[in-house]
Amino acid sequence: MRQLGVGRIVALPPELQELWSQIPPDVAEIAAYLQPVQEWLASQARPGDFVLIQGDFGATYLLVNFARQHNLIPVYATTRRQALEEQLADGSIRMVHHFQHQIFRRYGV
Q1: Are 78 and 102 in contact (CB under 8 A)?
Q2: Residue-number span of the structural domain to which 45 is assigned
Q3: Would you write out the chain's pLDDT as a tens digit for each of its 109 residues?
Q4: Listing from the earlier edge strand, what are the strands of the sheet with 50-52?
Q5: How many domains does the chain fold into?
Q6: Which of helix, strand or coil describes residue 11?
Q7: 70 close to 39: Cβ distance less than 8 angstroms
């Protein structure tokens, strides 16, 4: 977040992080489910603050729109990914994936 000039990072409280991480796949409408996250964000963030939003595609879409409506700046992290395959003596293949953070990118820019 240094590239954005961010001096302080505020993480979701554990119960909201759990809620965000476990969005039910069998619920058709998730806006009400996300209400606690939106309420927390509205109480913590100020206009012009950056908000890192990643996760379930539909939830991300809703939260990015919420952030914009509240004059927040939604961003996401980009990574460089490398996959290495190693054929083992028994004929199986070991896959090793390396992910390296690159930058934070604003949504829609």
Answers
A1: yes
A2: 2-106
A3: 667 777 778 899 999 999 999 999 999 999 999 999 999 999 999 999 999 999 999 999 999 999 999 999 999 988 899 999 999 999 999 999 999 988 889 998 6
A4: 50-52, 73-87, 93-106
A5: 1
A6: coil
A7: no
Asked if 34 and 44 touch (Cβ cutoff 8 Å), the reply is no
Residue 73 amino acid letter? I
Question: CB burial class (10 A; 0-12, 13-18, 19+) of residue 12?
Answer: middle
Report the alpha-carbon distance of residue 18 to residue 33 in Å, rounded. 12
Q: Which residues of 58-87 are buried (b: 16+ CB within 10 A; e: fewer)?
A: ebbebbbebbeeeebbbbbeeeeeeeeeee
Whether the CB-CB separation of 57 and 82 falls below 8 Å is answered with no
Eight-class DSSP state of 2: G
pTM score > 0.70 for this model? Answer: yes
